[in-house]
Amino acid sequence: MNYRKRIADGVLRSLLASSGAVLIQGPKWCGKTTTAEQMAASSIYMNDPEEMEENIMLAATAAKRLLSGATPRLIDEWQLAPRLWDAVRFEVDHREQHVGQFILTGSAVPPDTSALHHSGTGRFAWLTMRTMSLWESGDSVGDVSLGDLFDGREPEGGGNKMELERLAYLICRGGWPAALDMDAEASLQQAFNYVEAVAERDLSRVDGVSRDSEAVKRLLRSYSRYQGTQVSIKAICDDIKANSESMSEGTVLSYLHALNKIFVVEDMGAWNPNLRSRTAIRTSDTRYFTDPSIAVAALGIGPDDLMNDLRTMGLFFETMAVRDLRVYAEALHGRVYHYRDKNGLECDAVIHLRNGQYGLVEIKLGGEKLISEGAATLHSLEKIIDTERMNAPAFKMVLVGVGRYAYRRDDGVCVVPIGCLKE
Fold first, then answer.
1. Confidence label for 111 from pLDDT (cuts 50, 70 and 90)
2. What is the pLDDT of residues 2-37, one digit of tens each?
3. CATH of 7-128, one of 1.10.8.60, 2.60.120.10, 3.20.20.70, 3.40.50.300
C-alpha cells in the first residue's frame, strides 16, 4: 500500500521540534505506526511475536537497551510495557538533545497506570490520530480550507461531485487506510472485521478483564442507535433490554470505559460560552464513535440501507462530519465541542482554537430546507453569546453532505459540502 500523506504528519513534525517525546494514540488500524515510521530514524516493535516476551522482560530490567538507537526512535505499542514511560522520561531528561528523541504509539491506554511514576509534563506531547478524513483519503477536493474560514476568507469552491450514493458508501467504508486500496465489497468488510475484533478480543485484552463478546456487540448496537445524542446510561440499558438481554448500568459503564480506552468511542464535550442571559447550558457529553463505519457495521447495515432511510443516514453522516472536523481542528490547534442549553437550542459542532477564535457549525445532509434550518440555529446561538466578554464567532457554517458548490449566503452563513473541505 502506498503511503498517503496524513494531516498528522505535520502535527507530529511540529511536536517533535518542541518535545522530547511524542505519544501517538488512537484507534487500531488508523495508521499510527505507519505515520510514525515516516519520521522515525530507528524502531522497536513491542508486539513483534518473535521478540515480545524478551522486549517486555527488557523493559522491566534493562529498559535503556530498548531506547538505544538513532533518533527519533519509534517504540510501537509501548503500552505493553508501561514502565517504558518513566524510562523514556528519564532518558529525555539526561540527554544533551532534549527534543525529538522518541515517538511512542499505542492503540490503548495502558492498564497498569500505577507503573507511571511521572505524568510526563514537560517531556511528552500527545497526538491523537483518527481514521482518515475525506481530504486525506482523496474523497474531498479540498477547495475550502477550515483555516481560511477562520482567517475570514470566502468559501469559494465548486469542484465537489459527490452524489448521495457515494456519500452512503463513504460512511460505510470509513476512513480505514487499508480499505482505500480494496474493491468496494472488500473495503466495506473492514469495519465489520474491526467490530468483530473489538468484541471477540480487544475489549478483554485492554485491561485483562474478560468480557462477553455478545454483550459487547449488543452495547455497540445500542450506542449506534443513540450516536449524536446526549443519551443517559440508563437509556442505553433500557434500549439493550428492549432489544435483547439486559445489562446493568455498572456493566455498561465498565464496557464504555474500556471502549474509550481503545478509542472505539470518542464522546464530545460541551461548549461553555459566555452568554447574555442566565440560560443553563447542558454539560452532558454527546455520544460518538471514532468512525461512522463502526456504527453501521455494529448494526449490520450497508450503503443501500442508508439510501432507503435518509433520516438514519443523516445521523451517521453527522458522525463522519465530526470525525473530519476533529482531524482538521487538530492541525489548527483546536478542539470540537457541542452546544445545548435548557431551552433546546443546540449546535452540532463548535470548533474552538487555542487562540480564542471559534466557529459555529451545523451539520445537515443537504437540501435548501435543512440548510435554512441550520442557518437559523446558528443565528439564534450567535445572538445569545456575550461578545463583550468573548469574541464573536469567526464564521458560521452549515456543513452539508451533498452540494456542488461552497458559498456564503446573504445572511453571512457559509454553506460548505464536506467533499470540498480540508484543514
1. low
2. 677 899 999 999 999 999 999 999 999 999 999 999
3. 3.40.50.300
* Listed residue (384, 376, 380) closest to 409, CA to CA: 376
Cα angle value 284/290/294 (rounded, 5°): 115
Reference 259, options 302, 303, 298, 312; nearest CA is 298
Quote the DSSP letter at residue 290.
S
Instruction: DSSP for 318-357, please give it.
Output: HHHHHHHHHHHHHHTTEEEEEEEBTT--EEEEEEEETTS-
DSSP label of 163: -
What cell does 41 get? 530514524
Grid cell locating 172: 460505510
- Nearest Cα neighbor of 150 from 359, 337, 331 is 359
Q: What digits encode the pLDDT tens for the residues 130-158?
A: 999 999 999 999 999 999 999 999 998 76
What nine digits make up the cell of 5? 500523506
pLDDT at 115 over 50: no
8-138-330 Cα angle (round to 5): 25
Instruction: Give the residue extent of every domain in the chain.
Output: 7-128, 134-422
Q: CB pairs under 8 A, 24+ apart, for 339-343?
A: 339/270, 339/271, 339/273, 339/281, 339/381, 340/230, 340/270, 340/281, 340/282, 340/284, 341/279, 341/280, 341/281, 341/282, 342/279, 342/280, 342/281, 342/282, 343/279
- In the prediction, which pLDDT does 31 show? 95
